[in-house]
Amino acid sequence: MSTPVTTRPSTVSRLDRAGGACLVLGGVAFVAGGATHPGDSGQGDKVQQLHEMLVQPSWYPSHALLLLSMVLFTAGVFAISRRGLGASMATAAKVVTGIGVLATAGMAAHLFAALGADSLVAGRPTAVYTLQTWNETIIDTLWALSIVFLAVAGGLTRTAGNRVTLALGLAGGLAYALASATIAFTDRFDPLFPVGSLIGVWAVAVGVMAMIRK
Length: 214
What we know:
Blueprint: H1 11-35, H2 46-54, H3 59-81, H4 87-112, H5 127-157, H6 163-182, H7 192-196, H8 198-211
Helix pairs in contact: 1-3, 1-8, 3-4, 4-5, 5-6, 6-8
Protein name: DUF4386 family protein
Keywords: Membrane, Transmembrane, Transmembrane helix
Transmembrane segments: 21-39, 59-80, 92-117, 137-157, 164-186, 192-212
């Protein structure tokens, strides 16, 4: 008479499910945050345009969603880095996780920048404006490029998505990076931000694939 053997879910499976869920929820929050982000009239200089956005009621809910997305993205990528990946891919995922932590802090600063909106009424650059400029042109751009790298590396090795998700992450990441890097200087590339929402679509697709991985 044989004794039934009960198998327990492996650590890899648990990490896949947890990381995948974080990426799915993070992707949804990213798209929703971008869709509700306040816009400006396009009139005046960049300081005046920033003030116009900061005083809109949608600033806080939009950036709360974007902050949540950064937290979930970072947690999801961290879970990926803990799986049984090759040494180079694991290291890459850990670097992207570190950039995600930095981007999370940056998005928290974005969220509370509205508290200093009154300082921009005069239309002159202030500490709030300077912080926003560095935050968007440096941190946001770096984060978007890290997503591009992860999407390409993960897609080619099939450790985080495939060649289809690679295209989504590449297009969305490059669009978001270019729009972020130039937002403080020109309005020309602002229309690329909606294209950047493909980052969220990439995250949902990669997350679902991770959760159903066998």
